[in-house]
Amino acid sequence: MNICVACDEAFNFIYRANLDSLARLGKLTFFSPLRDRQLPSCSLLYLPGGYPELFAQLLADNETMRFCIRDFALSSGHVYAECGGFMYLCQKIDSSPMCGVLPLQATMQDARLHLGYRQMEWQGQQIRGHEFHYSSVCPCVLPSDVTVLRSQQSAGGQPVDTPLYIFRRVIAGYTHWYWGEGDVSFPFFPDLLA
Hints:
Layout: E1 2-6, H1 16-23, E2 27-31, E3 44-47, H2 56-61, H3 63-74, E4 78-82, H4 84-89, E5 92-93, E6 96-97, E7 105-107, E8 114-122, E9 125-133, E10 136-137, E11 146-149, E12 153-154, E13 164-167, E14 170-173, E15 176-178, H5 190-193
Parallel strand pairs: 1-2, 1-3, 3-4, 4-14, 5-7
Antiparallel strand pairs: 5-6, 7-10, 8-9, 8-12, 9-15, 11-13, 13-14
């Protein structure tokens, strides 16, 4: 299995242990949404965190890559995106067009810090991570083919309003999940990993 990982100045927040875990599942291929024109052939696309808002115009200008990622997702490609990668999948970051996979708009307007440890049960597996971002998603009515899961909790077990979005074979949200230790492995897409 070929796993494509976005990695450049805009997407550079990646747990090393997560990469090690993914490398046990398949071959990692790194690419740059800022500079590359084509998405490498892959079974799983991983869009990690970073600061796409600082490179929004450059990401918008690379229309070829944005369309490649959109087409991959819309043709039921497996996509896992967290934080900055999630923002990149939205229609826009403020006025800059992004991939347009999710019918959402990210914004830096009225920026405020969202920070904390998170936990959630996912298909029988307890996963943990953290949330750290200043952006937010503009309120909107989502179409019925987008599922919004609001089952995350703080480290103390209190519910938090941090959603996870599921659309076709896309799983995206602000939380940076950690699956690099113990018996926790990449928890998403069991159909792909079987």
